[in-house]
């Protein structure tokens, strides 16, 4: 199980921490404001009150050992930059930092952020899918908790037909289309690549490595499918 640290418990950070925990992730929620820490204490694995610009404080709570850290500090950009730098220096594999402008995004990327989140444009719910299910590429919400989702075919599906996989029966979702990169030789014998879309995959359609599946279904069911 991946361990996440969410640093900065404003509206975005608090919702993301709770959603990750609800999704089964091990979450450390961090803020220097005790009231915000107490508000999420019962919803996550650990909630700690500390200054995330303090290297010793981060080490004392094993935040240097997490798999992913989300720096959601919003109002203090200098603190966000320093926290991002410290986390990367401590060896955190993936650091995602909040930026409220393109200039700040560029700065955070240059000091080591692996990804940037703009909470004014991207909801915590969308980042939940990106963090818990990294193979998930895109999602169109059709109703609450239900969407049309693009996801890379998991290895357990490779070289098997839809009939063999029994996706609808076993995962309670429907594969409605498959995108695949195909290679062909042109008239001059030169290898070319092209994207093909199977909009109505049949029972005997075989899933290949690299296929992108268009899946209709409940979010939780899709995450179980692509784990």
Summarize it.
By secondary structure, the chain is of the alpha/beta class. The protein has helices spanning 11-22, 34-40, 55-60, 77-89, 102-110, 124-132, 162-165, 167-171, 219-226; strands at 3-7, 26-31, 46-49, 68-71, 94-98, 115-117, 136-143, 146-152, 174-185, 191-198, 212-218. The model has no long low-confidence stretch (mean pLDDT 85).
The third-level CATH topology of the largest domain is: Rossmann fold
Overall number of structural domains: 2
Strand coverage percent? 25-35%
- How far the N terminus sits from the C terminus, by CA atoms, comes to 11 Å
**Poorly predicted runs:** none
Tell me how many strands there are.
11
SSE order, one letter for each helix or strand: EHEHEHEHEHEHEEHHEEEH
The CATH class of the largest domain is identified as Alpha Beta
Strand pairing plus helix content: what structural class?
A: alpha/beta
Widest beta sheet: strand line-up: 3-2-1-4-5-6
The description of the largest β-sheet is: 6 strands, parallel
**CATH architecture designation of the largest domain:** 3-Layer(aba) Sandwich
Radius of gyration: 21 Å
Number of helices: 9
The CATH superfamily name of the largest domain is: NAD(P)-binding Rossmann-like Domain
Tertiary shape = elongated
Helix content: 25-40%
Mean pLDDT: 85
């Amino acid at each position: 199980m991946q361990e996440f640290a969410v640093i900065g418990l404003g509206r975005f950070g608090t919702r993301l921490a709770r959603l990750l925990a609800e999704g089964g992730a091990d979450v450390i929620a961090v803020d220097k404001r005790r009231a915000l820490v107490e508000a999420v204490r019962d919803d996550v694995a650990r909630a700690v009150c500390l200054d995330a610009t303090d290297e010793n404080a981060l080490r004392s709570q094993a935040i240097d050992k997490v798999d992913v850290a989300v720096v959601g500090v919003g109002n203090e950009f200098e603190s966000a930059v320093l926290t991002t730098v410290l986390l990367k220096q401590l060896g955190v594999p993936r650091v995602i930092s909040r930026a409220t402008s393109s200039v700040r995004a560029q700065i955070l990327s240059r000091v080591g952020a692996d990804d940037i989140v703009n909470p004014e444009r991207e909801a915590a719910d969308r980042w939940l899918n990106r963090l818990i299910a990294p193979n998930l590429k895109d999602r169109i919400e059709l109703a609450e908790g239900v969407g049309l989702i693009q996801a890379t075919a998991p290895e357990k599906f490779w070289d098997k037909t839809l009939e063999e996989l029994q996706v609808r029966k076993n995962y309670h979702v429907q594969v409605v289309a498959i995108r695949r990169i195909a290679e062909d030789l042109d008239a001059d014998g030169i290898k070319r690549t092209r994207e093909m879309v199977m909009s109505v995959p049949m029972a005997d359609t075989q899933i290949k490595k690299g296929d992108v599946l268009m899946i209709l279904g409940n979010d939780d069911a899709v995450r179980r499918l692509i784990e």
